[in-house]
Amino acid sequence: VRTYxxxxxxxxxxxxxxxxxxxxxxxxSVDGSVLGRFVELAGxxxxxIAVIPTASTLDDTGDRYIEVFKSLGARTMVxxxxxxxxAARTDWLDTLERSSGVFMTGGxxxxxxxxxxxxxxxxxxxxxxxxxxxxxxxxxxxxFLSEHMIAYGDxxxxxxxxxxxxxxxxxxxxxxxxxxxxxxxxxxxRMFTALSANPFAVGIGLDEDxxxxxxxxxxxEVVGAGTMTVVDPSEVEYSSxxxxxxxxxxxxxxxxxxxxxxxxxxxxxxxxxxxxPN
Amino acid sequence: VRTYxxxxxxxxxxxxxxxxxxxxxxxxSVDGSVLGRFVELAGxxxxxIAVIPTASTLDDTGDRYIEVFKSLGARTMVxxxxxxxxAARTDWLDTLERSSGVFMTGGxxxxxxxxxxxxxxxxxxxxxxxxxxxxxxxxxxxxFLSEHMIAYGDxxxxxxxxxxxxxxxxxxxxxxxxxxxxxxxxxxxRMFTALSANPFAVGIGLDEDxxxxxxxxxxxEVVGAGTMTVVDPSEVEYSSxxxxxxxxxxxxxxxxxxxxxxxxxxxxxxxxxxxxPN
Lengths: 278, 278
Prior knowledge:
Largest interface: A-B, 34 and 34 residues
Strand order of the largest sheet of chain A: 3-2-4-5-1-10-11-15-16
Largest sheet of chain A: 9 strands, mixed
Oligomer: homodimer
């Protein structure tokens, strides 16, 4: 029986691989800094990349990524898991196990969790990352990476009871809750709400074409074009969530908030931000 | 020559009057908690209230307030300043000087500042408040109360260079920057931007039908139906504003943020929030 821990246990002396959460709508040209960084972290021209388009219901979702990754010199295969029984296919599992990088596309994060959750594919993804493999997701794929996944939510910056639903995600880390299309879809309030119940995690809000590259040392580098919003609830003194009825505004005291630009860093363990002035 | 200091000097042993900033669209029935609190602070059934409808271009803007204030037992007069020369009218100044409470309506805060700024009316308002008189403003009237007034701005939660313009306001205090219709008009980002240049003040974002009642001790009580958002930039470690071009996102590290509900308090000097659990 496998013990489920978050993240999967690493082997002594072997750091886990990078986790790359992308806010969606990233530049998909060969010059795009986000996809370029992912391929580099997966091994560059030695990379063997598995693309998992499961979040999407479109047949061609993986195609553009294959084209870009191949242009960047990486060997690339699509693993088109469409239903739970696909997750048992040993040929695809073999391909997955030999990859040096995994990329999950956008779509609906509930397709990723309902089709891959609890399957050998999920176990493999967790073990691969623990063993050093780079695992990336964009949009829905980014939301799925962490232990607690935002499944649904409403717009606006003000936290309100029941404005967000969390469901279990892949669990590569439980230190962050990730949200994407962050500025574009006005998602700050649902992040405050997601953190208002149990302020142990850090909220990472990613604008489009913007990635959080989370190293083995839990230091995040911002890559891409936009802002990474960090919501640190570690100093929250009070949350009124337990007293709030559906839709009520939530009172919160002591949120720390940072807006980080490309190149800037955030240390998830120290809870410190490092700006990189021009 | 009068020396211009913010706020106006108080007389030894005589605390200044309350400042009541209202987020607009307050309940204008006699049962409305915001207007009720203002009348109470102005003296209740002994109150003599001057209504200044200058922010509005409508002729009847003051009428509804007169009706409510009179229903609550206060004597009430309208001082319809419409152009700068009106500010010299000694009969109106006499009425103003005898008031125990002043109420500025909504409209456009630039009408208040362009018509009353630098006139004997502004001086009188500052002196009255320093002498103990309650001064309230709703919507545009609220924005005008402080030394630094938000004149224009854009929507969205992410701070961006040039998304807000500050102009000089009435100057009853310089400890806060006030914004109104805060949740309803999506104004969190312009508040971050307003504070990103010089993080000495505290941002007070007021939802509709919600008031900040600022006592002589600089403790704010939230009154009304909505949330008061407090943006405390006193721990900001870095702002990229000086390096940003027009429209660029601004990087900011170390904002403190609170969402306060009705009845809760915020101490502007200690920078502490006090929740009042149900």
